[in-house]
Amino acid sequence: AQSVTQPDIHITVSEGASLELRCNYSYGATPYLFWYVQSPGQGLQLLLKYFSGDTLVQGIKGFEAEFKRSQSSFNLRKPSVHWSDAAEYFCAVGALMNYGGSQGNLIFGKGTKLSVKP
Amino acid sequence: DSGVTQTPKHLITATGQRVTLRCSPRSGDLSVYWYQQSLDQGLQFLIQYYNGEERAKGNILERFSAQQFPDLHSELNLSSLELGDSALYFCASSVDSGTYEQYFGPGTRLTVT
After folding, report:
1. Using one digit for the tens of pLDDT, what is the confidence trace for A26-74?
2. Among residues A95, A94, A113, A90, which one has the least CA distance to residue A44?
3. Confidence at B99, pLDDT banded by 50, 70, 90
4. Which one of B90, B99, B105 has the shortest CB-CB distance to A104?
5. Chain B 29-48, CB below 8 Å of chain A: which residues?
6. Which residue of B has its CA nearest to A112?
7. How far is CA B96 from CA A26, A37, B48, B72, in A?
């Protein structure tokens, strides 16, 4: 069955430090991968996506992610964290389409909560 | 602002009651998805509609139902509510079915007392 694992429930980094959030997926084909961010009391905002091509994808707010097929990973990175980056981050994979290719829901990991120390 | 709107923002109701959550997708999007976010289950896909037709079902209870109207807005109906139904309910939309790139609304927080 398809699944997404985010091994870190909570991460704390200092402002200005680099960040890497881990995501591993289980999928039977080339996956469509996403990272979303949820600020407290807010909806989910799409940070970046990977469909195919270049395995290093750039997103909004200075985030990037690298798709590594051999490791079934799609880790999110940022070189220098800002206090406003404190939020919960979700990795997601597009569900395998049923016959006919009309399904499009996402399967989410449990999320990683990021805290930023001043 | 994703362009997806959801009403109401908050809803408090009693066990056994029925509520309706409303979602308007982004302009031009034909597909609507409903997700439930709870502390124990995380983000779970409930149901997908595309241009008025049901396309996929996830972990949706029989007490829950949804529909998408000709103007493409969608409603999620929750009935015989239980304490465990308390959660954040998100609507998302995408241009068509199967593109996966979804834009989420701000959510409706449902509290069942």
Report:
1. 876 778 899 999 998 788 999 999 988 889 999 999 999 999 999 999 9
2. A90
3. low
4. B99
5. 31, 33, 42-43, 45, 48
6. B42
7. 25, 23, 11, 12
